[in-house]
Structure formats: structure tokens, C-alpha cells
Give the backbone structure.
Amino acid sequence: MSRKLLLEHAHIDGINGYETYRKHGGYRAVEKALKSMAPADVLEEVKKSGLRGRGGAGFPTGMKWSFLAKPEGVPRYLLCNADESEPGTFKDRYLMEKIPHLLVEGMILSAYALGANTSYIYIRGEYSWIVFILEKAISEAYAKGWLGKNILGSGFDCDLYVNPGAGAYICGEETALIESLEGKRGNPRIKPPFPAVKGLWQCPTVVNNVETLAAVVPIVNEGGEAYARIGVGRSTGTKLISAGGNINKPGVYEVELGLSMEEFIFSDEWCGGIKNGKRLKACVPGGSSVPILPHYLVTKTAAGEDRLLSYESLADGGFESGSMLGSGGFIVYDEDQCVVRNTWNFTRFYHHESCGQCSPCREGTGWMEKVLERLENGKGKLSDMDLLVEVAKKIEGNTICPLGDAAAWPVASAIRHFREEFEWHVREPEACMQRNYGLVKEKAELA
Amino acid sequence: MPKVKIDGFEVEVPEGTTILNAARQIGGDIVPPAMCYYSSLKGSGGKCRTCLVKVTKGSANDARPLPKLVASCQTQVLDGMEVANISSDEVLNARRGVVEFLLINHPLDCPICDQAGECHLQDLSFEHGLADTRYEFERRTFEKIDIGPYIKLHMTRCILCYRCVYTAQQLTPERVHGVIGRGDHAEISTFIEKAIDNDFSGNVIDVCPVGALTDRTFRFKSRVWFLKPMDAHRNCEKCSGKAVAWMYGNEIFRVTGRKDQYGEVHDFICNTCRFEKKALEDWTIEGPRDIDRHSVISQNHYENKTVTVK
């Protein structure tokens, strides 16, 4: 049985209320930190823990925090990125809905470590009901003296606000999030300067994912070294994985990093194998932005080693034969699923969500979507695959923010691993229609 | 002062200068093209990605090359930096890609576009684009909109460079003009189609690199290359009064700001000068303007250019 650090108490009735949360050890970490630790000690523990950003990029949190500029007389801000909108990812939603005080506690600790007196939770607009859950938790924390002025007599002030977005995926990019929070159009900023130097209202700012901030609680409670002992190599601690697709038990799981992919997909403790006794076809291990893995690369790397749920093992093989842990949106496809249709669906999403600021992403995402739509509907050409690869290559790395990369990678990887299926769509459109939709479209429509 | 080498040419520039501006000090072919950057508009640039360059050596202290191509209009030079622009195939390839992207939703009907001859996208695609398009789908189109009595907006031609948005924000008192929508369905719009009504609104026409914003008092009156640009000035209470009168015989067809070789205006002019003073007696004509742009608009003018060997 894997250890749970974040969701240990999530199943308990009433844990979203203050009393129950407190009874199960809640706010112990804040007590410990504010009474016996200096802000630098908290930062030191986070560094020792090896915690890496859980929002997708996997950047070491301690290092990110230590980059924060600390000019005299300028306020610093901590922002929680709860704009979880990646297709396939729903872990933060679960955490905030079930155990909101854990996030509040993690934010108080992190704000203390960073010396930020004002913090915001920027939450996805579609999570409208969670706004109320968080606001209730925050008002309870204020009432009990965990937020506000001079917390526990330590002299540390902390205010926490919830700010709902208006439904744009791009606002999950940290600088777009800052723009949106300032009340402007959510366009990513051009970097440098990075938020750690000039962020919210041109002040030093740290933006962290919900899960990252929540993970600070067990790190303070048990010590960074104890946290670092969980996991494998530089992938330490536990990770929430939101598993979906054709598996028997979809849901949010907390796993120790380093669990084998084979065990995660097939054992009854986790996903419970592929639904209806079908075979595994492919897997997107980290949300729609990461490269897709064909079945022969899901459980084994190209070098023949066991593939593990960790930052390094999933990235093993680079873009040729690897993928990324990303945000943990784990999507499993069985043999009946169509990779072309899936890729089209992803590009449709990125086309819709591109902010339109820089040309490669604005125009390229729409182009890829149209070509894939044509392929899916049996009107494609054999040259379309090369065209898609070419377009993806022209977008990747040439954009202001990583949305361009995120749009390009799934397309490039799907064609790399499933080119035959794409070609089949061109050669035998009727058979594809039959498989995907169970019907043959009129021949005239195909012509 | 940091020294930077661009395509083998070295230049010394003040601290904080961007690669693009350093290249402009050297001049010639190695200046990266820019569709969105506009030196007199704060915050502009970084969007169109045509000015991407390769930094082959980070600085004297850290010789590592930068991993990705960078937007030269946004990246500041460091001492000892080495940059490859036209000497790098990677850069030229990426630029060709950007031009292709810019053109997929842009109509290729230059013969009926008022901007033809002074359009930056036309020049850019001539220099860096492909001969034909690989895009086989319907293009994004919009209805033409009149923004007030003087300005015509045709979003179909817009490349969303945001220059006009910055102009409206920085030059004019009230902001009634911005971008709505997202992605390739984003559009430049005025607040509920409210007319832009202030004295400097006409400058959005000058900053527009394409034919999306055009002068309603001049539209389709003449092709720009048939007109003779003359430096002209008048005493104006609102602006510097320094402008270019575009003439045919003794008739002034249109008035614009004075654009430099990169198409940038530094002395913005007011609407009275631009739209209302079109009689010869309104202006003191200084003489022919030397248009130093590598474009159709430089052709067929009075001045005799002598070719200098650099």
C-alpha cells in the first residue's frame, strides 16, 4: 500500500470543515512553523524535500522560491494556480473540493516562507462551486486566527483571497494568470522579466500549483528529508494522478513517485486494468499537452527498462520514445480508440484556447485542427502527415509561452508513433468511419 | 558598453539595448524584420515572431548558446554576445514558417488593397516567404467596419500586431480600442463599435503594418507609388506639424506622419493635419522626401539615388 500524504484524510466525513480537519492534525504545520521555525527554515525544508512543481513543468519548488527577489519596501505575492483546465487533469479539483483546508494551510506556510503578506488563489472559472468551498474554509481560518494579522502572535500577517477566472486555459500560464488577476486580458507576458522579479503589479511573485502548495504541509510536518525518502531519484514524494479513459477504476489516486506504470494501470489497487478485457493501445501520462505513448512504450522504455511514474522515467527517450509526467492527467486508450480522432480533439482544444497574441500559435493551431478534421472525416491526403509534422515543428519553441509547445507535441508524437493509422484514414476512409462511428458516411460526402 | 556581434559585424551599444536595435545600428540586410515592434510604442513587440534570431554565444561570461530562438526586439544584448540572423538556416527556416502562418489567414489580394506598395507584410513575404501556399482551407473573414468618419477597419487583413492598441492606449486619452476574442478569432475592436474620437486617432493608420486600418479620406483615390512624397510642415497647435504630403501635381492626396526606413513614425501628427488640411496653401512644402525602404514605395521618386558601396 502506497503512502498518502495529501489525501490521507480526504475520505473522512466533514473534513472540509475546520473542526474535523483540525482534529485530524490540521494546522499543526502552521503551528510548528510559526512557533519554532524561521521563514528560511521552511524554505530549507522545502529545498531538502526535493519537491518539484506539480503543475506540469516539474521545476524544483525550493529553487523557484529562492529566486524570488526581495527588494526592500516592496510587497511580495504568492499566487496559487488553481486554473486547472488541461484535458485529462482533475486532481486539483478533487483536492480543493474534498480537503480545502489543506490548500489554505499550505498557502499560509508558503507565504510565511516567502514573506508574502497577500496571497491569491486564482481558480478556474468553471469551478464555480469550489470558490464557495474555498471561501468557507478561508473564513473559518480567519475566524480561528490562522489568517489575518499577527498569526499566533508571531508577527506574521497573511491575507488570502480567492479570485475566479473567466474560463481561459491560457490563464494557467503564470504570467497570463498575473495579467488576468490584474484585471487585464489574459495574454502571457514576454519573459524576461520573470515573475520572481516582476510579477503581480510589478512586484516579486511566486506562482505555484495547488498540489505543490498542499505538499508543503507534510514537508513541514515530517521534515524535508523524510519527504525526500519517498519516491525515486530526483522525483520525490507523492503525486496525485487523475486517471481516466478506458480503465476499470478511473479516479484521482495519490501515488508514491516511482510506482511502475504496469502496476498502476493493471493492478486492482489502482486503475484495475483495461475496461471490458480490451487491450491497451496508448497512454497519455500527463495531460493532453504531453506526447502520447504507444502500448509498447507504456510499461517499458525504449531501452527495455520498466517505465515508472516519475519525472525522469517518463521522459526517458526524449521526444523520440518518451513523454512527460506533466500535470498527472493520465489518459488510457484501449484498442478501439482512434488516435486521429483523439489528436484532432486535442488540437481543437488548443485552437480554441490559443490567446492569439503570437502568430505561430494563433495561426498554426487552427491549421493543424483543420488538417486533422479533414483526415478524420476521410478527406485527407497522404501528404497531410508530413504537413502536420512540419507545422508542429514551426510552432514548437517559437512562441511566447509554452501553449505552442503543448499544442505541437501531441500532434508530432501521434504521427511519429501512429503514422500507419493516419495513413489508413486516408486510404480507407470508409473503414475508419465504420470503426469510429459505426456507420459509413455517404460516398458523395467523402468525395 | 556591451559589444555584440551580429552575423559577424560587431557593434558597441548602450546597456539595455535590444538585439534588434543593435542590428539597426549596423544596418543593411542583417536587420531582422519586425511586424509588431514599434520603437516609439512602449510594450510593443514580441508577438509576431518574425524577428527571431539565434543567440550562438550567450555573453562573454557565459558562452553557452541560448536553447531557443529569441525575439530580437525583446532580448537585451550582453557583452560578448554573438547573434546569427541571416547567417543561420534555423532562423531563416523559422522566419519562413512565421511568414507562412501570417499569410494563411491574410487575403492575397494585394492588387485591390489600399496598403499595397507600403505594406510590410507584402515586403516580408516577398523577402522571406514561399512562392505558393500550402493552406487549403477557408480564410478568416470579417465585414469592413467604419471607425468614425476617418478610419476604416478591415479585420480580414489584420495580423494582430497590437500596434494600434498600444497607440490608442499611449497616445490618446481614453481607451476605447482593444482586442476582443481569442486565438485566430481575436479581433481589433472599439468599445461596442464606438467611434474612436480624439485628435490623435489617425495615427493607428500609420502604425498598422498591413491594410487593416486605412484612411477613409484617401481610400482608393490613388496607388501610393503614383504619388510624390514631399516633406511638409505647418504651424499646428496640437502636434509638431511635421508631416509628409503625398502629391500628384499640385494636389495633396493624403497626409501621413514621417516614417523612417523601418516604417516607424516618431513625430505623431494630429487628425486636423492628417485629414482636414489637404489644400496646398495649408502646407509649407520642404522638398521631396527620401523614402529609404526596400519596397515598391521607394521606386519612381524624384530623388536620384546613387548606389554607395558599403
